[in-house]
């Protein structure tokens, strides 16, 4: 991880395509602006983490199994594949 110090109005460039600019610092909050090509998805991490957790839970519900049973099933399948001859 790279940690940089920036002041309002200062930017960083990532891969010549993405520019992140510090717009404002107010107390313990920093407002940033991100300029990137449309092909680049920009999502707040906490939202992405929440969606991933919900998807994982939904996948377990869809199979009728809890997370531990899904892990057990994956382990069994890995062990079965180890015994196969190709």
From TrEMBL:
<dbReference type="InterPro" id="IPR036107">
    <property type="entry name" value="CsrA_sf"/>
</dbReference>
<keyword id="KW-0963">Cytoplasm</keyword>
<comment type="function">
    <text>A translational regulator that binds mRNA to regulate translation initiation and/or mRNA stability. Usually binds in the 5'-UTR at or near the Shine-Dalgarno sequence preventing ribosome-binding, thus repressing translation. Its main target seems to be the major flagellin gene, while its function is anatagonized by FliW.</text>
</comment>
<dbReference type="Pfam" id="PF02599">
    <property type="entry name" value="CsrA"/>
</dbReference>
<dbReference type="GO" id="GO:0006402">
    <property type="term" value="P:mRNA catabolic process"/>
</dbReference>
<dbReference type="GO" id="GO:0044781">
    <property type="term" value="P:bacterial-type flagellum organization"/>
</dbReference>
<keyword id="KW-0810">Translation regulation</keyword>
<keyword id="KW-0694">RNA-binding</keyword>
<comment type="subunit">
    <text>Homodimer; the beta-strands of each monomer intercalate to form a hydrophobic core, while the alpha-helices form wings that extend away from the core.</text>
</comment>
<keyword id="KW-1005">Bacterial flagellum biogenesis</keyword>
<protein>
    <recommendedName>
        <fullName>Translational regulator CsrA</fullName>
    </recommendedName>
</protein>
<dbReference type="GO" id="GO:0048027">
    <property type="term" value="F:mRNA 5'-UTR binding"/>
</dbReference>
<dbReference type="GO" id="GO:0006109">
    <property type="term" value="P:regulation of carbohydrate metabolic process"/>
</dbReference>
<dbReference type="InterPro" id="IPR003751">
    <property type="entry name" value="CsrA"/>
</dbReference>
<comment type="similarity">
    <text>Belongs to the CsrA/RsmA family.</text>
</comment>
<dbReference type="GO" id="GO:0005829">
    <property type="term" value="C:cytosol"/>
</dbReference>
<keyword id="KW-0678">Repressor</keyword>
<dbReference type="GO" id="GO:0045947">
    <property type="term" value="P:negative regulation of translational initiation"/>
</dbReference>
<dbReference type="GO" id="GO:1902208">
    <property type="term" value="P:regulation of bacterial-type flagellum assembly"/>
</dbReference>
